[in-house]
Amino acid sequence: MKGPFRLGLTGSIGMGKSTTARLFAEEGIPVWDADATVHALYAKGGAAVAPLSAIFPDAIRDGAVDRDRLKTLLQADKQALFRLESVVHPLVQAARQAFLLAHETADLILLDIPLLYETGADRDCDAVLVVTAAPDVQRARVLARGQMTETQLEMILARQLPDAEKRRRADHVIETLTLEQTRAEVRKLIATLRSRHA
Ligand SMILES: CC(C)(COP(=O)(O)OP(=O)(O)OC[C@H]1O[C@@H](n2cnc3c(N)ncnc32)[C@H](O)[C@@H]1O)[C@@H](O)C(=O)NCCC(=O)NCCS
Ligand SMILES: Nc1ncnc2c1ncn2[C@@H]1O[C@H](COP(=O)(O)OP(=O)(O)OP(=O)(O)O)[C@@H](O)[C@H]1O
Question: Looking at the predicted complex, does its ipTM rise above 0.85?
Answer without folding.
Answer: yes
